[in-house]
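This follows on from our talk about sequence and fold. Please put the record directly below this note.
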Amino acid sequence: MKLPPPLSGKKDWPWIMESQRLTPSMENVGSWPMISIVTPSFNQGCYIEETIRSVLLQNYPNLEYFIIDGGSIDETVGIIKKYEKWLAGWVSEPDAGQSHAINKGFQQASGQIFGYINSDDLYEQDAFFKIAQQFVQNPELDLLAGVCQIFNENAETRLSKPSWPDDLTHFLKPFSSTFAQPSSFWSSILYRRLGGFNESLHYAFDQEFFLKAGLSGISPQFTPEVLSLYRDHKDVKTRKTKKFYEETIPIIKQYGDQCGLSGRDITRKIHKIFNDIEFFNIFEVWRKKGRKAAMTQFIKYMLKSPDFLCDRKVLGQARRLLMFKESDVAELNK
């Protein structure tokens, strides 16, 4: 694929490298299932070109790619226009959040295989051919996940390998997805059967989607192949810890009984998360208003919920409040 030249100084995948070229035996487009990819984006012009190239340079013969931008005011739109003729569609307009943007893209999609990639992540070289082969070999396959390589700005890397919990109550915990979202793909049939992503959730919608998939009785399949690269940086959404905890509460309320929990168990789980959220709140008060205000907040909540002190991390927090300098406050996300 003849894309615009790479940015000056850029090298390797997906800048001066690309996926395998089609051989004559691979050229029958109809023999390859259509893959529909959506990229939700908002003001990530410093990353999105790499994301776009990692999709288009797959050289996959039956691809449709949508970019749903939330009305970025940085260089994002200019970059999208640079690759416009290779896209199935794109838009830049205000939306109701990431889950809404992804659903907007998939509502236009006609592929058999769905996946989405955020505008700061990228797919690994040759990923789409590997994905398609898995779905072709297993026509009943609903959900596939592979390995994801996580990297940061210091070029440090680690691998996230996929798994599936023995007990679906696992998904009733914050940050409970058992595989990395960029390395997951699912059938369009499953997506529509589950009703897509819950647009009332802005952080834990993946968690809820995979829980719904499990409750529907699917058997996911995993591959040891690295399918994506996840960029860990200071503005990444997964650093907003408290938000994920807050959005897990409605998930517990809606699906706790379907996962076999009693009313009492549901109440306990929700109470535990409220304690965790208050733990984060106390650090925020300390950071914004100082030690005295944080200690007052700590005592008020302890009197309201005495079992707050039963958590080891809370005892550690109390020790820090009493002994540490304000500069030693752990950096928690808002």
User: Anything to note?
Assistant: The domain at 24-236 is CATH 3.90.550.10 (Spore Coat Polysaccharide Biosynthesis Protein SpsA; Chain A).
